[in-house]
Write a structure and sequence with these properties.
This protein has 142 residues and is of the alpha+beta class. The protein contains 4 helices and 5 strands. Strands 1-2-3-4-5 form a 5-stranded mixed β-sheet, sandwiched between helices. The chain is globular, with a radius of gyration of 15 Å. The N and C termini lie far apart (42 Å).
Length: 142
Amino acid sequence: MDCRLKISVRPFTEEDYDSVITLWEKIFPGALPHNNPARDLRTRREVPSELFLVAIGEGRILGTVMAGLDGQQGWVYYLGVDPSFRRQGIGTSLMKRVEARLREMGCLELHLQIWASKAEVQAFYENLGYVSEGRQTMGKRL
C-alpha cells in the first residue's frame, strides 16, 4: 500500500451503512438532488462485495470505492476520501485494489465519469493512467 497513513481496505458490510452515508454526504455536499447517497447505496447493494471497498484508518471509514462490471467493461460509480485525509494515498490504494479485482473478474476496460470543472480530480485519475475518451455524456431527467 502506498499510503502514508496506515489504513486497511476491506469489503463494505451492512454495519458500514451509516458511516458510508455520512462520509458520502461530506464528500459530495453539492451533489445534484437526484444523486442521493442513501438511495444510491440502497439500490446498489447488489454490487459484489469485492467491488465495494472501504478504507479504514484511525478507527473509522476514511474512503470508499464502488465499482461494477458489465461484461468486460467496468465502471467506477463512487470514489471518495474524507477531505481531511486526502493526498495520503487512500484514493490511490482504493483504485488499485478495485482495478485488481476487476481484472481478476475478466474486466478489460474501466470507465468513470467526472465533472469537467474538477481539474484536480482529472489530474488524480490521469496519474493513475486514465485518459479522456473524448465522449460527451448526455442525460435526461425522467
